[in-house]
């Protein structure tokens, strides 16, 4: 009986003990969770104070990645580039990005640029990063000044053109709207101005073949390509024509060149050109440049005016993916399509300089047609700076920008380690996952000792890409989807040009006809006028009017057809 009564008591004690232990565990968990929450809040506040209001977990993951890889960064050195130099420049996070709680998702550890795309697993809670790394001639981080960017990628080209000998040098700024192209090119232009005149003053630097203030003039021409039109930004936005002569030389008919004799004159022209440029506000940039702006600096022989060398500074229009333009009106849509067509052609043309592409499709766009000699000349050198926004909401764009830049010079990246490097896969991923919620990231299996830095870079670049990766606008395959629309836009611009020219011609002819009619009326009211002659002349005038109206109607019909086609195709694309 006594033993029986003990059992329930023991069991009750055990149960009580279990409950007490569970409560203690729960309390411990509560304390731990509170500590985690507190630590998270403190980290958030620290991030906020440091100007990083974005997602604290993603920020933490990016920080971990940087800590693991920062020792792979190399010092910048002069790249002895033969023909092409490709760089990336990251700008700092801006107020707009902070306001939408973007975090910094790009790391530039020269010569590598890595985009950390924030991802959620299917459970909707677990966070992880996809890292896309690319290697360039230079990777400039947000703390690098434009002076330094200039020194490595543009200064060698200034020296090259000052040496004369038919040199053709081109500096391109390429990137998403708002990523810093105009900011970078603006300052580069100022430095070019100073350097050119300093070099030209030093007459002995390049010998007789080279350019000096004594034997050469330095003149500037600035124009933009916008909406199928080429407009002179230094001469009342006059419309210009690109022509190719019998020898295949491209001539921009009507373009005015202005001689500059010192940096101040040069910069005044740049300023004027900049003010006249076509801009619109876009989501990403309040003053987005919608045109390609080309500033050409031409060195000519003082005695015979012969062109000795040329430097082109090209601030490209912001690259936008098709998806971003879905809600745009026709003007903005066609604008974007034209920009994309020219950027695709540009990529192929630059690749041809280095022998990466057999095909030089310079006729595919006005931009590449105008820059033909930058691609086909034996004395051509090119520098491309890909500017990127660091915001996490731009990560897809940034990957596209880097991929575009990467494809320009795949295989022969100027080597930051002092020897020629082998081809790296242009786009590879390393994963760095937090699960569930937040967990330590898994580092790539890299040897981190200094002597193995290059191996480590290889590992980053060649790590397996086991996640899906969406091919974006500038990939070969997806660009096919846009070809028909892009062609239609080009046809639309051509028809528009023909219609406007025809319309103008008719206005002139109409004015002449009115004068003729006035004269006819005056004649018929005179003495002894032959009414048969009057009827004959009037009949000719009326016939001519009919012809003119019918011709105009026909041109208008062709233009309207293209408008309709563009509307239908872009509707189809919006549905995709
Ligand atoms: N490296 C940088 N450091 C500080 N601010 C920058 C930097 N790059 C760009 N910015 C700022 O970012 C904003 C957008 O830059 P910018 O107008 O040069 O972009 P963009 O690429 O030319 O854009 P779009 O294609 O729309 O013309 C500007 O306010 C500019 O001052």
Question: Could you explain how this protein is built, in words?
Answer:
This protein is of the alpha+beta class and about 575 residues long. It has four domains: about 1-50; about 50-140 and about 390-475, no CATH class; about 155-385, 3-Layer(aba) Sandwich (Kinesin); about 480-575. Helix content is about 45%, strand content about 20%. It is built from 14 helices and 17 strands. A hairpin with a 2-residue loop joins β2 (about 105-110) and β3. α5 (about 155-160) packs parallel to α6 (about 180-200) and α8 (about 330-355) runs parallel beside α11 (about 395-410). The longest helix has about 50 residues, at about 475-525. The N and C termini lie far apart (about 80 Å). It binds adenosine-5'-triphosphate. Adenosine-5'-triphosphate binds near residues 183, 285 and 387. Adenosine-5'-triphosphate binds near residues 94, 175, 179, 181 and 289.
Overall pLDDT confidence: 81
Identify the CATH homologous superfamily of the largest domain: Kinesin motor domain
Terminal Cα separation, in Å? 82 Å
Low-pLDDT sequence parts:
411-451, 462-481
Instruction: Count structural domains.
Output: 4
How much beta, percentage-wise? 15-25%
Strand elements, count? 17
CATH architecture of the largest domain: 3-Layer(aba) Sandwich
